[in-house]
Structure formats: structure tokens, C-alpha cells
Amino acid sequence: MRTAYRRYLLIFLCAVCVYAPTSTLLWARYQYELFPFAPWELFSHVPNQHHDFGVRILAVDGQPLDGAPYLETLKGIAGEPYSINAHTTIQTLGQHLENGDMTSAADARTLLEGRYLAGAVVVYAIYARDSFPLARWRNEGFIHEVELARFSTETP
Amino acid sequence: MNLPRLPSLSFLRERCPHAPFDFLWYGAVYGRARLLVRAYYLFTLYWLAAVLAGHWAAWRTVGAIDPLWPIFWIEWMEVRAFVDGLAYASLFFMLMALLLPQWRVARAGVFLCFLFWYAFINSFGKIGHDGHLWLAAGFLLIWLPDGDVRRSVGKQHYYLTVIASAQCLMMLTYTMSGVWKVAYGIDQMVQGQIGTFHPDALATLTAFRLLQTNSESLLGPLLLRYPLVGWPMHLGATYLETFAIVAAFRPSLHRLWGIGLIFFHFGTWLLMGIIFQTNIALLGLLMVMSPFYREGTPLRVTLYNLPLLGPLFALLAPRAGRLDRARLRPSKSS
User: Fold this and answer.
1) Does the distance separating the beta carbons of A20 and B64 come in below 8 Å?
2) pTM greater than 0.90
């Protein structure tokens, strides 16, 4: 019993001593999270001027959409318009496109189209955009937007 | 909570009159801890039922998936078979763990099933963090001692150590989160930006989160109209998170920290629409219902033990503090 107890304590202390610094360093250095060892960097950095990516839907089944609205505003058309998973997938895709990593971008695109744009032929564009969150909330819009790429779910 | 004491251990009191702790107190604390472990497995079963009721049909027909490493083998089988098989296995192990929590195989089975479910749920482009602590607690509970724990103080000590280590691990993750906030806060303050300590910090984070998915929350719009309201809340949450690991080692703070962090999670839900359900349940089990928290602990003792602020309270009323500490010390005659 004593051996089991000491072994447990040793394993626990070693695990904690390895887990906390490793997950923190991996995140700080590479922005990498090895599931399920989270670094717990959640809403720590307050975004002042924020750079992110969005998907504008240009046409659905050949019908152009007025104003090319963003995916997250398309309740009733997109499957999960409010999904944080869809938002994160778009960020991954946009980041790869911006870095010119087309192989990784193709993987992210497959997931985005298969999971969040399925069921119709959708033509969409990825935009990089900058904004101040509080100002954008007050309907002041983006500082600027740039189209990175244009895709259709019909063509690979 | 008045739990029956164990008469078979009473001889230890005579044999070890100078022990730094009360052996009989172990019996009561162990009784509470055992109840807590059973409640953990009950809630795990409830979680499974709730999740399957809402998602089973949709998950069986999932098209695109980017599997995390624990379920890499899902690529060699149909998603429908994976979901169905895992549902049946989970039901079996979770029921077994609820009925026979002393059976290590059942506890290990629950951990593996939860790991697979949780990996599956997070295989759609984003790793969420709602179930991480529940999973970690499940892993530690596997190592609870086997056999008849009730008749052995040594095994009870081992059992309680596992519970205490689960509390420490949970509080460590909150501290990690708090340290990130403090570090970024100092960095952004030096750069003259809105950061953790700025009055607009919580409002900016709330706007940022709601705009990400164009979603709504109950109190978000109110906070964005009056950003100053969020300042003390954000500072309080940062304090609770940063010093959570200290609270884990001070039983008189367990309940306060548990309730405080539950409020913090409700706050993030009301403002940002982010809910950490399993964290709330785990905080309730491990901290609010902490087996190490002594019922009747005076509020003053809790205040004296507050990290950073405690010494200030103790300076204001040092005599009362000494009296309360003496009152809380286990008595050899009681």
C-alpha cells in the first residue's frame, strides 16, 4: 500500500511538473495545443486592433446574395452560422492562405466545406480584416478588409 | 455533515496522542470523499445521457471530421459504428462506476470513454475546454486505492490524497489562466493598450467574443453600454484565478473559491455566451463540497487566509484571528 501511495504521489508530481511548463511553452512559442493538455490561455490578451478572417458568401446554388454577407449572419441558410467551431476553422484557413501554405489550407477548406457549407453549391470568399472590437460593436465596421481567395464548394 | 465515526480506529488516538492530526477526523473526511466520488460518476452518466439525447442522431451522420489523436482510428471505421459502439461501452462503464466505484476497471473504462467522446466532440476544427478538468479528474480517480479502505487509515490517507491532488490540479489550471491574464495585462499596460487591468477590458473581450459568431448573450449588451460595470468583475475573476492554487492548500478557502469560480463561469455565460458546465459541476463537487472544508469555519478565518488580502484582515483584528485558529485546531479530547 505504501509503495502504491508513494508511486501515485511521484507520478502526480512529475505529471504536474511536466504538464504546466510544457503546455505553457508550447503555446507561448508555437501557439500549439496538444489535446488534452491545455495551456489555459483563454481571453487573456485583450484584442485592441484585431486581425481576423471571415467568409463572405457570394452565391448559393447559382443565386448571388445581396451584399455578399458574412457566414455568421446567415441564419437559415448556413447550417451552423453561430458555430465557434466554424469560426475557428475559418481562422485556420485564412491563416494558412495568408502564410501561403496551400496544403494545410486545402485540409482546412475540406473541413469547412464538408461540415459548415454542405448541402448546396456555395461560392464564397475569404477575407482578412482588421477592426477595433468595441468600435465594431457600435457598428463602426472594419478598418479595412482584403479578399484573400475565392472558392466554390463544387470545385476542388 | 454529521457522519458516523469509526469505532475500530479509536485505539489509534491512545497510541498516537501527539499526532499532528486527528485520526478519527479521517473517517469523517473519507466518508464525504467517498460520496463525492460516487457523485462524480453519477454526473458523468448524466452528462452522457444529456449529450446523446441532443446529438446522437446528428453525430452518426457526420460527414467531414478532423480527428484528434485519441481517436485517430476512427478513419478506419464508419462514424456510425464508432458513435454507437462508444455509446454502449460508455453506458456500461458509467453505470458500473456508479454502482461499484471501488472497481478500478470501471473507473478506467469511464476515463477512456470520456476521453474518446471528448476527442470526438473536439474534432471539428476547434478544441474547446469545457471537459478538460472533468477528464483530468477522471484520470486521477482511476488511482484510488482498492480493497476495504474503511478499516485502514493508511488507505484513507491515500484516498484523500487522490482527492486533494484532483483539487490541486483543477486549481492549478485556473492559476495558469490567471497568470496568463496578469502577464498579458502587464505587457499591454506597458504598451499603453487596453489590457486585463483596464476598465474597458471585459467590455472589449465581450464585444470580441460576440462578434466572432454574431451571437447574443443575456447581459453582454448591458455591459457594452456601461463598460465600467465589468471592471471590478474582471479584476475579481483575475484574482480568483491567479490565487486558485493557494486556495487549494487552504481548506478554509475551498468553499469560497468554489462558489467564486462558479460565479465566474456564470458570468462568462451571461456576458459572452460561453458555458463551462462540467467545470461548474466539478467546482461544486471538489471545492464547494470539499471534504477538507470544516463546517462552521468562521468567516473571519476565511478572510485571514485570503492570499494577499488576508494579512491585512489579520492586522486589523489579530486577537480575534488567534482565537479562531485555536478554535479550529483539532482537539484531542473531542
Assistant:
1) no
2) no
pLDDT at B334 over 60: no
Q: What is the pLDDT of residues B73-87, one digit of tens each?
A: 998 999 999 999 999
Q: Which residues of B touch A92 (CB under 8 A)?
A: 125
Show the CA angle centred on residue B183, arms to residues B182 and B184, nearest 5°.
95
Say what the pLDDT of residue B254 is: 95
Rounded average pLDDT over B121-149: 91
Q: How far is A8 from chain B (nearest CA, A)?
A: 7
The answer to whether residues A89 and B125 touch, using CB atoms and an 8 Å cutoff, is yes
Q: What is the DSSP letter of A66?
A: T
Q: Read off the C-alpha cell for B70.
A: 485519441
- What are the chain A neighbours of B204 within 8 Å (beta carbons)? 46-48, 133-134
The residue type found at A88 is: T
CA atoms within 13 A on the CB side of A79: 15
A80 interface with B at CB cutoff 8 Å:
no
* A42-94: pLDDT as tens digits: 999 999 999 999 999 999 888 998 888 998 887 655 556 678 888 999 999 99
A71, burial (CB in 10 Å: exposed 0-12, middle 13-18, buried 19+): buried
Pick from A11, A22, A45, A70 the residue to mutate for testing the B interface (most B CBs within 10 Å): A45
A11, A32, A46, A138, best to mutate vs chain B, most B CBs in 10 Å:
A46
Q: What span, in angstroms and rounded, lies between the C-alpha atoms of A41 and B54?
A: 29
| Residue B124 pLDDT | 87
DSSP letter (8 states) at residue B73: G
Relative to beta strand A122-131, strand A50-60 is antiparallel
C-alpha distances out from residue B257 to A18, B69, B240, B302, Å: 26, 34, 7, 10
Q: Which residue of B has its CA nearest to A21?
A: B176
**Cα–Cα distance measured from residue B210 to residue B221, given in angstroms and rounded to the nearest whole number:** 10
Phi, psi of A76 (to 5 degrees): 95, -20
A45 and B CB contact within 8 Å = yes
d(CA B98, CA B40): 8
SS3 A144: strand
Our CA-based measurement puts residue B259 at a distance from the nearest CA of chain A, in whole angstroms, of 20
Return d(Cα A142, Cα B126) in angstroms, integer. 25
Average pLDDT over residues B301-305: 88
**What does the pLDDT read at residue A2?**
73
Average pLDDT over residues B140-153: 86
Q: Does A18 touch chain B (CB under 8 A)?
A: no
Q: How far apart are CA B275 and CA B261, in angstroms?
A: 12
Total beta-carbon pairs less than 8 A apart between chain A and chain B: 158
